[in-house]
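Meet my pick.
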Amino acid sequence: MALTTGHKTIDVDGKILHIPEGINYSCAGCGRCCNGVAVPMTQDDYERVSAIDWSKELPQFDWSRQFRMLSAKENDSSTYTHAIRPTDDGHCPFLINKLCHIHATRGEHVKPLICGLFPYSFNNTPSGVYLTVSFRSNAVLSNVGTPLTEQIDTLKEKFAVYNTLYTARSVIWDAVKLTVDKPITWEQYLDYEKGILEALIREDLSLKEKIFTASDSLFKDLNKPAMPDTIAPPKGLDKKFLAGLFALYFPNDPKYLNKDVVFNGISFALDLVLKAPKFKVVNRSYTFEELTNFPWPEANSKDASGSSSKETAEAKEIDDLLTRFLYSRVFGKWYFGGGFAQLSVIAGFHHLALLMPLMRMHAAGLAIARGASKVEMIDVMVTVRQLEEKVQEAVLDGYSAALWELILFAPGRLRRLLSASI
């Protein structure tokens, strides 16, 4: 089943659960979900797991320090009280040979609740709860497994776990704005969202054209600035803003890889003015042009017989992955308002769209680092996974949000950056 503007709805304990079509998932047993994060635990989780003497079974770890208490800021609006510290190489200490040691030796009911919830994600909105899945999962990245629309019993169980973990969470949706000075109702928002989703599922458009069409649909009730016939190259501010986002979402220093993304508006603004736009990947800095000009799989390449080549198939797979990433965050309402930093819809969507050139450049840097002649699917998958980890943790201060609203509103900037990079 392909992506569609339609979706399935079911009633779960009096709440409407919206399930996207065209999204599949089944656990592949890769263990990737246990990497890159400190696993949060409720008080019950902590007492249940820490009560077991793991030192005899897993003596390679110092169990006197593998659990830590969360700060007040960390456990705000959730029932989490503790976390399992990741090992020095970033994975959960209970991940042994790609399998959960707790699950294997004590059963699923013993491990932390969040582990059973992953990769399912729920967002409570005025029109019901919207389901998505995390692109940190290899199975989600590849879109393999059972369609979400066929997982009704599982989804009911996962939704119950979600409600247990996030009973205190309050998502504010009563101040939705199309732009900073144009508030809209939730029903009006859903109409705008339909225009975005309709653009993203069009098979006759390239990814760039899908994004431009979606952006245009958001300006249908506004006096949109006239777009020139020819799109100019990116301006200095365009590249600097992108470089600032790149440094925040793809930190090159390992000590920042497992930390939340917290935007400081003042330092971010100073970087825009004072720093040259550089993009660092695997300890090497590149210019915008070096990364965007690095070869990407061609969508219309042919082999010696004139048939579509493997490169064309790979290009389509990459395009499908990036489209699903965009679609999932739009369907799940994870890009504006209560879903992302209270940004307006237009600024939120333009930020989401600019993740595409960020991923293009980061994937190019990974390909260069491994000596490849062009970007391949593995580079894109690693990039999408890391970006998903960082974007879902992003926190903006008030000054950053105001700065983003100003910079991200411009459709011309979006066109310049995407036309030069994807």
Observations:
- The chain is about 40% helix and 15% strand.
- The CA atoms of residues 347 and 408 lie 5 Å apart.
